[in-house]
Structures are given as C-alpha cells and as structure tokens.
Amino acid sequence: MRWLLVKDLQILRRSPLLVALLIIYPITLALMIGFALSSPPGKPKVAFLTQVPKGQGRIHFGSQQINISSYAKDLYSSIQPIIVHSRAQALAAVRSGRALAALIIPADIPQQIQSLVTTGVGSPTVQLILNTNDPVEKQFADQAIQARLNDVEQAVSKQVLRVAVVDLQQVLNGGSIQFLGQSFPLLGLRDSRTVLRRAIAALPVRSPLRAELGKVVGFADLAIQGLAFASPVLGSIGTPLTVDQTELSGRTTPTATYAATIAVIFSLMLVTLLLAAGMLALEWEEHAFARLVRGLVSPGALLAEKVVLAGGLAAAASLLMAAGVSTFVPLEWSRFPLWVIALLLAGTAFGALGVAIGGLAREVRAASLLAFMLSLPVAFVALVPAAAVSGGLKSALDTVAFVFPFKPALDAVNNAFSGTAPAIGLPLVHLVVLAVAFGVLARVAVRRGA
Amino acid sequence: MPATAATREATLAARGLSKRFGERVALHEVSFEIYPGELVAVIGPNGAGKTTLLSILAGIQAPSGGEVTSPPESKVGWVPQQPALYSKLSVAENLRLFARLEKLSDPDQAVERMLDQTELRERSGDEVGHLSGGNQQRINVAIGLLCEPVALLLDEPTSSLDPRQRERLWGFIEGLAAQGTTVAYSTHNVTEAERYADRVLVLADGELLFAGTPAALERAVGGQTRNFESAFVRFIDERGH
User: Fold this and answer.
1) Which of B74, B84, B93 lies at the smallest CB-CB distance from A10?
2) What mean pLDDT is predicted for residues A423-445?
C-alpha cells in the first residue's frame, strides 16, 4: 500500500490545478464563513433630520424631566446617520439611494408627548421615509429604526410611570415639592389621618363634627390602602412580563460554531468523495486496475489505500480549515485530539463512500460528477430541521441521513469542536459502521468489474 | 527450435477451458499446450475469445469450466492491449513502482535493466503521457518483463506501433523466446503470426479450430491460396464462422 500511496501523491503533485483547488477551496470557504459569522450586519444608512430646536427636547413630568435628544445616541448605534438639515435633503438622500431611509423628528414632538402624558391628548408622530426599490434592504432599515423607536417609547413610558409612582408616594407619605426655587412641605395622607384622629380625640364626646371627621378618616384609610397597592401595580406595568428561561439538555452549540462545523464537514465530504472516487476511477482509465489486482495488490488493499489517501488528505485540509475558522469562531482547542479523531473517522467514512462511487462509475468524469451530485442532497437532507417536515417525510429524511456519513460526521465534529450534545461516542461508532458498509459495497462493485 | 511434448513439459496448458458471460459463450472446451521457448500466436476474427483466453491464462479472469496449468502468477508476465501505465508518472517512476509492487529484490537495478532494453534511457524522466503510443507500448511490455517471467502473455502487442517499432519489438520477443521464455500473443495481423509464431491457435466464436504451424494451416485449406492471410480467411469460412 505504501508504494501506491507514494504513486498517488506523485500524481497529485503533478496535478497542480487539482491540488490548488483542494487546498484553496476549503480555506477560502473557511475564510468566507469566518467573515460572514464574525462581522455584524452592516448598519443601514439613514438620513436623519431633527427639527426640534436645540435645548428644547425636554419633557417635564411633575418634578422630573427626560431629554428625548439623549435617545438619538441609541438610534445612532443601529444606523449610519446621514445628518440632513431639511425635509427636501432627506427626500433627496433616499431618492438618490445614498440613504435607505429618512427619519424626520418634527419640532413639536416634545410638546406632543408632554400633552399626551399630562392631558391624554396629543399625537406625537415621527416620519419614516423608506426606499422601496429593494424589499430586503427596506425591511432591514425598517426593522432597525422601529426597534430603536420602540426603545424610545418604552423609555418614555417607564419614565412617566416612575414619575407617577414618586408623586403617588408623596401623596401617601408626604414630602416636599419645589416651586419657584423654594421648597414647600407636603402633608401626606398618612400624616393627614393622624392629624384628623388627634382632632377627633380633642373634640367633645357629643360634638357633631366627630362623625363628619370620622368619615374623612375612613376615606383616608381607604385611600391609603388603595394607593399602597397602586405603586407596585404601576411599577409592574413598566416591565409587564419577566421571562424565566430554563435550558434543558445541557449546553447548546453557539450558532456560529455550528455553522463553522457544517462548513468544515461539507468541505471534508466534497474533497474526500472527489478524491477517493476520482483516484480509484483513474486506475481504470489508466488501464492499470487489472495489472494491479493480478497478484500485485489485493482489491481490498487498493480500496483501503484510496480511503487512506482521500480521507487523510481531506482530514488534514479540514484541520487547517478548522484552525482558520477558529480565529473567527470559538472552537475548543483543548479538545484538539477529538477534532483529529472525529475528522479522521469522518474522512474514512466519506472515503469508503467515495471508493464505492469510483468502483461503480470507473471513469473519472462520471465518478466526479456522481460524487458532486450526491454531496448536495446528502448534506441538505441531514440539515433539514426536524420541525420543518411532517411525520412520514421526516422518517424518510431521517433514514436517508442515517445511511450517509454527513449527519454522524456533523454530530461528532460538532461535539469535538464545542463539547456540546450529542455525545461523540455514538456518532463515531456510526461512522465506523458506515465506513465498513460502504467498503463492502465498494468491494462488490470492484469485483463486478474485475 | 522449440521443445515438443515428447521432450519437455508444457509451460502453459488448457484443458476443456470454458468461459461464459451470462448466456454468451466466450470460450467453449478449449484445450492446448504451449512449451518452453515456444512462440504461439492466437488469431481469430473479432469476438473470437482471444483476449478472454489470454486473460484467463494470466489469472485476471477465472474460467467457468476446465482447467489451466501455468507457472505461479508472479512468473507469468502480462502485457495488456492498452498500455497500463500512469501518464502523470515518468518512465522510470512507472518501472520503479511496478518493480516495487512485484517485490523485486533490487527494484532500481530492474529499472536500469528495462531502460536499457526499451532504449528509453534518455527519456526516463519524461512523463509517460508525453510519449508516443509506440514508446508507451515499449514500457508496457517492459513492465510485463520486470519479473523475468517464465511465460509472457501479450494481448495485441503491436497494435499501436509503427513498422520500425514492430520490428524492434519482435526482435526483442524472439530473443526472449530463444532464451527459453514461453510467449503467447494475440494479434489481428495474421502476417505477423505467420512470420514470428512457431504455432498458431485459431479461435472463432470461442472454439479452438486449429492448433499448429502456419504452414500446416495453409495445407489444411489445400495450399492453393495467395498467402497465409487468404488461407486463414478460407479456413474460417469453410468452418462456417
């Protein structure tokens, strides 16, 4: 087998285009995935016009106030603002495509909010102008701006509630209020009730005022009880729902790591299948197969050599790719020995499938085409989410995924990269079983043509 | 003069040899013997079973019936019709690869010997894919000779060679036979069979119709033909094939 390996490596060395493709393809794929996963989505360019005069963005709620201008900073974190100074400029920016959207804040927005909060009358409105040429970009800009505007709405609501709660507390417990730069004491309901009780006690027993003042004390009691409930109720409206999240089945793989694993396995599959199928079919194309198996090499050894060659080279290329991806995506280098084991076994299983293809096709172009055509559906079948299909179809897809190495390879390498479920043992055993099964199929295919 | 059955034991022998591919009969009850130093041509029309017969003698295919007597596989040289070489490897690398796979004691020495025999030393570093068909066939034959075979089987060895290359190859093969190597080859070129073979085996539709010298074949059709090729055609026609 050693001399056959040497021979195949010599042939590969003299096929620079093929080797370049085998090296460059996975690395390029790794880099592209890395950039795609590590770069945040670009911020949409939005023409931004605020007509609120400087220093007039404050809204007063009783003794407190908020400055809506401060929320512009939050908006800028989601968009690339193009500051414009008139509505015409904003429209021109959108029409020319320089901006995906324009956001116009009218001059009376603080007053409108103030009026709505204090009197219930008012319609604070901002204007959003979207470029509708590209529906995807339109949705992108719309979502980014709506998310930030929702934040502003929520902040104003919270602030209003906070002010209301403080004011209610002062009505209940008393305190002080600021007016014209001076502080005035405010008698609360509790203190008022105490004063009234003292006054009742000081009155003659038969005084008619006792009963009247007693009614006022009763009202104060009811008001104190009601307001005592009101504060926490109002506070809870600001954050109406709290999510208590519980995760089952241990850690889950970060999306980026899972995506990187898919990329690595897809490259491993493609390189191994093409190499194993192509190099075996080459033995027929060069008319060397009969000469080799005529006592020089057993068919089993010839198949094993192709599996070792293709699986080994592809696993090495995949390790390089994983190393490249790990600069963008968190992979656990402490589990490196498991990377090697998982990739080698995955390479072996794909290599066995590759020699089965090569043994059936016996012509390099046909074998390559068959390997390529098989790769895509095998990968997609394994990646269809369980919830996306109905029972019967799911069983069929599961069966197809089970008889090809992509799914167990994905599970094994995913665990090796991140240590997350499922455990690595079963997928590795699955890969060994598939390697043996496809090896037997390849042996039968080769015998058919011997 | 080759040895005969009376004096020596056959190197290659077939008794009642049959081969079927499904319903199709490729060989039917074929029996013959070939002796050390003998040069035997297997001739016949297309589809007669020539390549199948040589493949069975070489151990590449198993017969459906009958038996074959031959030296161990490692001592039977096999030269397929189309050069079984790696076009991306050089001449020397091809020879070295097969010398190593043959487990020869000194592969490098065997390569040197074959480079001299094929007269391709100057092109030993060239990729085989860049050589002419004739030169590729010379390497193809050389690989069959690496194991210093007792018997050499060649399937259409001169089909891609020009007249000069054919002349050189036959000179080389006659030299091997003279040294005691048993040689059996198939050919479409019956003139080559007449010229170089000690005996011919005539196959048609899987049946062995004749085994003897070219002169005996001419006599078998009355000796009134223009040449050996005409005698061969008449022989086949008279037997309904």
Assistant:
1) B93
2) 95
